[in-house]
């Protein structure tokens, strides 16, 4: 009989939908009994969300690690706060400790607010950078998973004006290697990796930009010499359609919105964020704190459910 996996699940920003979707997910028929969830958050928040939103969950039957960052139910909701930012960081740190000590098999993180982290005086822009530092990881990337489309990003959260200078041969090559690792984690043994161009028509032989010629093509060529099944760069306006129809297993995207717009178009409620390169398994719903609908009991847990299911499937 297979051992039930232990999954550490952080409740995310207490002001947002994180606590709600965590409990809706673990109580759903898709997750209940599938794993042993270990909830990391604050008892005050957990009790409040169960009571206020009338979520039918027996808190005494769950393993809940109380960080005691929020000590009572009198906390601000539906907005970024320094208290929320500090709490989020505490949850994530504890989850990483459990994973590194192999007390859990994976971690799943509920949404946090970048503004709250900043208000709390923390230096990280989000989960990805925090997780990399906490695990002493140098090479990492954001991978996004859905049933029909999978992609990985060369650049993450940066202004569009900064992107061209960040598209270097080494950075593209590193991301291609991480794409191969991502496919291994998903049990895709012989992955077909496609690389998107940065410019319209992948530069059209330099007419619309030369980043493809100077940086991307040399990276693809070197990866091919390393034995990786990778091709491109392809024009992004046709590449996602080809991948959606099964021609490729994963796309290496040059910047955030290049990949996230088509992904969210087809899988807004089902997409999952995975940090590749870490010594631990970490997944997360591919959406934010949704302050506008937080604490109303109407948040959709679908992406959280998919994040937990994927965490159970991935291999280190």
Automatic annotation (TrEMBL):
Keywords: Metal-binding, NAD, Oxidoreductase. It holds the Pfam family PdxA. The keyword RNA-binding does not apply. Signal peptide: none annotated. One of its GO terms (molecular function) is NAD binding. This is 4-hydroxythreonine-4-phosphate dehydrogenase PdxA. It comes from hot springs metagenome.
């Amino acid at each position: 009989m297979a051992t039930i996996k232990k999954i550490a699940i952080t409740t995310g920003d207490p002001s947002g939908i994180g606590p709600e979707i965590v409990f809706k997910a673990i109580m759903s028929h898709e997750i209940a009994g599938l794993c042993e969830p270990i909830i990391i958050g604050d008892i005050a928040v957990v009790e409040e969300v169960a009571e206020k939103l009338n979520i039918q969950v027996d808190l005494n039957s769950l393993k809940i690690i109380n960080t005691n960052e929020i000590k009572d139910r009198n906390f601000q909701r539906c907005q970024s706060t320094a208290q929320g930012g500090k709490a989020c960081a505490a949850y994530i740190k504890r989850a990483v400790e459990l994973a590194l000590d192999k007390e859990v098999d994976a971690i799943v993180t509920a949404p946090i607010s970048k503004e709250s982290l900043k208000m709390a005086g923390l230096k990280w822009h989000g989960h990805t950078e925090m997780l990399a530092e906490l695990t002493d990881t140098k090479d990492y990337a954001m991978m996004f998973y859905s049933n029909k489309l999978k992609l990985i990003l060369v650049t993450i959260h940066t202004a569009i004006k900064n992107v061209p200078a960040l598209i270097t041969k080494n950075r593209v090559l590193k991301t291609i290697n991480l794409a191969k690792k991502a496919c291994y984690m998903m049990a895709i043994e012989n992955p077909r990796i496609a690389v998107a161009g940065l410019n319209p028509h992948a530069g059209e032989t330099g007419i619309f930009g030369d980043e493809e010629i100077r940086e991307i093509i040399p990276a693809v060529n070197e990866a091919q010499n390393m034995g990786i099944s990778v091709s491109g760069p392809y024009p992004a306006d046709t590449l996602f359609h080809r991948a959606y129809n099964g021609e490729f297993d994963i796309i290496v995207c040059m910047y955030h919105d290049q990949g996230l717009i088509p992904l969210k178009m087809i899988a807004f409620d089902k997409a999952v964020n995975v940090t590749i390169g870490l010594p631990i398994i970490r997944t997360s719903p591919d959406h934010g704190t949704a302050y506008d609908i937080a604490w109303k009991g109407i948040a959709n847990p679908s992406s959280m459910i998919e994040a937990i299911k994927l965490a159970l499937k991935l291999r280190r």
